[in-house]
Inverse folding.
């Protein structure tokens, strides 16, 4: 009996656990699409685009300094955690005229980590509003064209988020002023979408090799 029990503990239970988590990935490993065809930042004429990248999209507004704490939170909790992934990028929309303020922010961020995947795109007010409105979220831009919320945009320029968030129901964006929200929600959701694409890539590679 003891040998049987030991065998169950060593071999059967790990197998059951593996099957449980594997089925969880298959059944729950997709981050819902909340809005298709978000207006691509490429329309501004910049070389940056949403297509083929997993993008963290933010809006810094005309008072960049007031959003610097948000940027540092995102850098520490999200960017540094995922920046090694090839198809991952940050895109911050900034009204034109704020180039000097952005350069100061970049200098400070650069003291904390490599910032090669931080992209700052300068646009006029109409362009900033147009891209934000294309998210079709329940959130609004501040009067200064900024927002404390950041958004996950997938490789097909679709907005991703949660449809059954325990606090908000449908969750369109993530509050960058809240370290707890970045830790407990956004990090998990970025993990999910990256795992989703890795799984799709493995399936494509397996199909090609047959």
């Amino acid at each position: 009996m003891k040998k049987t029990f030991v065998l169950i503990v060593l071999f059967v239970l790990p197998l059951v656990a593996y099957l449980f988590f594997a089925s969880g990935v298959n059944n729950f490993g997709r981050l819902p699409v909340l809005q298709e065809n978000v207006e691509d930042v490429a329309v501004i004429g910049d070389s940056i685009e949403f297509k083929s990248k997993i993008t963290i999209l933010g809006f810094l507004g005309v008072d960049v300094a007031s959003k610097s704490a948000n940027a540092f939170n995102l850098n520490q909790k999200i960017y540094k955690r995922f920046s090694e992934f090839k198809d991952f990028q940050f895109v911050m929309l900034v009204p034109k005229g704020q180039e000097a303020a952005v350069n100061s922010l970049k200098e400070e961020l650069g003291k904390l980590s490599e910032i090669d995947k931080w992209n700052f795109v300068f646009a006029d007010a109409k362009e900033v509003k147009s891209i934000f409105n294309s998210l079709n979220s329940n959130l609004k831009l501040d009067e200064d064209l900024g927002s404390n919320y950041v958004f996950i945009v997938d490789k097909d320029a679709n907005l991703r988020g949660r449809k059954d968030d325990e606090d908000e129901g449908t969750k369109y964006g993530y509050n960058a002023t809240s370290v707890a929200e970045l830790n407990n929600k956004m990090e998990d959701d970025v993990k999910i979408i990256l795992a989703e694409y890795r799984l799709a890539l493995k399936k494509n590679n397996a199909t090609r090799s047959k």
The chain has two domains: 1-30, 32-209. The CA atoms of residues 61 and 146 lie 4 Å apart. Helices lie at 2-28, 68-82, 99-110, 125-134, 179-209. The longest strand covers residues 88-95.
